[in-house]
Every structure is written in C-alpha cells, then in structure tokens.
Write a structure and sequence with these properties.
The chain is an alpha/beta fold. The protein has a single domain, classed as Vaccinia Virus protein VP39 (Rossmann fold, 3-Layer(aba) Sandwich), CATH 3.40.50. The protein has eight helices and seven strands, in the order ααααββββαβαααββ. Helix 5 links the parallel strand 4 and strand 5. Helix 1 packs across helix 7, helix 2 runs antiparallel to helix 3 and helix 3 packs across helix 7. The protein is globular and about 50 Å long. The chain starts with about 25 loop residues before the first helix and ends with a strand.
Length: about 300
C-alpha cells in the first residue's frame, strides 16, 4: 500500500438523500441495467421481468418511490427461491475462497448477518458479530450482538484475524473509523484485518475479473467518470438491500471509498498494508455484479 495520505477519498452524498433516479447519467443507467440483466440470466432468475422493473426505477422522482415500485413488481415476478438461495450461496463460496489464505487461529466476522461466510472458513475459533441478531445459528460458530456499530464487545488481542466483507460502507464515516481502531485493539500483534469491499482504484480502475462474462462490464465501469463510478456502487447497494432483500433496517449511508482511500484509512487506524487485489466486477454467482477488492492489512 502507498504512504498514508492526509485526505481520504470518499463518495458523494448517498443517492437516497440526493438526486432522483431519472436524473442519473445515461451511462450509469445503461451499465446498471445491463449488469443486472446479465447476472440474473446467469443465475436462472427471470431476467425477462427486469425490463419493466428497471424502467420504473429510472422514471421515479425519488428513491423511496423507486423502492416501492421495484418491490411491488418484484413480488409479481415468478422468482425461483432455489435460484436466489443458490446465487447467495455461490457468493459466500467465492468470498471464503478469497479470505481463507489470510485466516488462521481465532477469527471474527464483523457485520456478519449470519454464519454463512464462517461456515465455509476453516479456523480454530469462529465468532460472528453484528448489530442485529443472527438470522440463524450454525454449529461451531458463536454469534455476539454489538450494542453499537463502532465498538466490538471483545477483549484486547482476542483474535488472529478479523473479516469485514461488504459491510464497512454501511457505517457512517466517523463510526467506520472508530470501528477500525477497535478492530486494531482486538487483534493480536501481527493479526490481520481482511476486507472485501465494493471499490475501485481512482488511478487504474476496478481490475480484471476472473469471470469472463464480467470483463466487458468491468471495462464499461472503468469508462465511467469518477462520480458515475460511485453512483454505480450506490445503485448496487440500494438494489441488493432495499429491493432484493426487501430490508428497510440495513443502514445505507453509502460511505464508499476508492482503494487509495482505504489505504489511507487503514494506515490511520494503525495497520500496515499487505496487499490490495482489485477483483473487477464480481457476480460471485449473485443477482448483481459489483466491483470489489480484497484488502489485507496487519496490526503493526
């Protein structure tokens, strides 16, 4: 990773409090539409029903209107439950494969939601934490509810590795910074924080995906302006949580950073960078592809 920068790069204000969907640029709308259609076709979801849903989204005068319209039309679409479950399962398979080489000893999954990732990870001790109660239990995995999002209810130096996959942008910027300092506290000397985040390099783009079907879409993402790249990340966050999950409880401040910003933020929290692997657009077999990076840093 590069030297610590004084100014952290961050995303514009969340779309949920900003411009309406129909005010978005044509390149963002076109890439978002093509990406959802591609991923649905690959996972056996009824992509033929997406056209009317997305048309309603892009015509909406607010994101609350877009949410209501998309949910209503989605409920009418014959979505095979097995296909959606399989899509989510394949995503966790991919995440586990990426993080496993960096996990040893006692591991904590922060913002886990449930045991899905830790079930696929080999470790001596597996603990999950979230501000919500786990959606289910799994043998050998302990779930602990956090009282607040920025502080972990664990002793100093309790873990060898801490995982944070797709959750850091769900925190307000000041809470995220406090949480990373607390992750540092909970790690043993030399312990690692392992992140998979929706992000891109401001200098070089999102990277080359392993999935051949995602390479053209990744090139399309890199062709977007910087602001439009953040807008695409915001769309994927909204689509996955508000529409597909149907959740109003998951916070969406959308505090995305580019990888250069992550470099600076981790250095500020006392971590020494090990690697940043830009993964390009990853579907992971899911219902939508997002540009992600694997970020690994060690407690100094």
């Amino acid at each position: 990773m590069s030297e610590h920068r004084a100014v952290l790069s961050s995303a514009p204000t969340s779309i949920l409090a900003g411009m309406s969907p129909r005010a978005w640029s044509a390149p963002v709308r076109e890439l978002a539409t093509t990406t959802v259609m591609t991923c649905w076709s690959q996972t056996g979801l009824p992509s033929e029903h997406l056209g009317p849903i997305l048309e309603c989204v892009w015509r909406a005068t607010s994101w609350s209107e877009a949410t209501g319209s998309a949910r209503q039309l989605l409920q009418q679409a014959p979505i095979p439950r097995d296909a959606y479950r399989m899509a989510r399962s394949r995503k966790f398979d991919t995440f586990a494969r990426l993080v496993q080489p960096h996990v040893t000893g006692a591991v904590l999954d922060v913002g886990a939601g449930g045991p899905d990732l830790l079930e696929r990870v080999s470790a001596d001790v597996r603990v999950a934490t979230d501000i919500f109660v786990a959606d289910r239990e799994a043998p050998g995995i302990r779930h602990v509810v956090q009282a607040v999002p920025h502080a972990l209810p664990f002793d100093d130096a309790a873990f060898d590795a801490v995982l944070m996959t797709g959750m850091a942008h769900h925190l307000e910027a000041h809470d995220r910074q406090r949480l990373l300092h607390d992750v540092h506290r909970c790690l043993r000397p030399g312990g690692r924080v392992v992140l998979i985040e929706e992000t891109f390099s401001d200098a070089t783009g999102c990277g080359v995906p392993a999935e051949p079907s995602m390479r053209e879409l990744s090139t399309g993402f890199d062709d977007l302006s910087r602001d439009d790249r953040f807008a695409f990340l915001q769309f994927t966050d909204w689509w996955g949580n508000r529409v597909m999950k149907g959740s109003d409880d998951i916070p969406l401040p959308m505090t995305f950073l580019d990888t250069e910003g992550w470099d600076a933020l981790l250095a500020d929290a006392g971590f020494q960078g090990i690697r940043i692997e830009r993964l390009g657009l990853m579907s992971g077999g899911g219902h939508l592809a997002t540009p992600r990076a694997l970020i690994v840093a060690a407690r100094s």
